[in-house]
Amino acid sequence: MPPASMQGQTTKAHRACARPIRCQASLPHTCAIRGATRSNWSMADSAPDHGPAEIEGLRTQVAACTACADLPLGPRPIVQIGAGARILIAGQAPGRRTHLAGRPFDDASGARLRQWLGLDEATFRDPTKVAILPMGFCYPGTGRSGDLPPRPECASRWRQRALDLLANVQLTVVIGRHAQAWHLPDTAGLALSEAMRDWWVRWLETVLLPHPSPRNTGWLRRNGWFETELLPTVKSRIEAVLGDSTL
Ligand code: SF4
User: Which CATH number among 3.40.640.10, 3.40.470.10, 3.40.50.2300, 3.40.50.300 corresponds to the domain 36-243?
Assistant: First the structure.
């Protein structure tokens, strides 16, 4: 159900999919979501079980990718993907520090994200539980106002192939405007705050979060509902998804 503070509101996101608001309040929203989430499948009827060999095959191909020859620090694809993963984190692109460390979210943003999701480091880094697929797999470089956008080559080459192997994802965590545009195309024209205000429309299968970068601390202060209302719901869902084999 939508939180009390949201009831009765109709926004552009609702109108974009032309579904009655009451209907969306109780059903998973599927009209304009791209990704791997299958929140209404049980494990028994789920999906083709893509085994470790297929996933390892893709990981090997990704690791050898040199499609973007002009990356400032060279290609170093950083993804986390494993058979059986139930949480998908769809982020932006590795930063410089993550590139050097060679593993995703190895920075202050990662620490804040783990706290938001209620995940300890070991669970967060377990590819059989959590898949991490940024929009661009390699560090794209830095411009005058921060890191450059994810390289577009990556999504067209790899993204759908990787998502197709993630047959058991129950919750997709979409982070930042580039992942928002790809996974939630009906919200692409909306500011993050406006798109997020309707989080319950996509619940239980997808949730949109701001980037956990320390640069977004001001946004967090201005949107207190995010920590008091949304994050507890997200944490409960993740706990249930990772803890209950029947989900
Ligand atoms: S950003 Fe993506 S497409 Fe470009 S080299 Fe890295 S893995 Fe390949």
Answer: 3.40.470.10
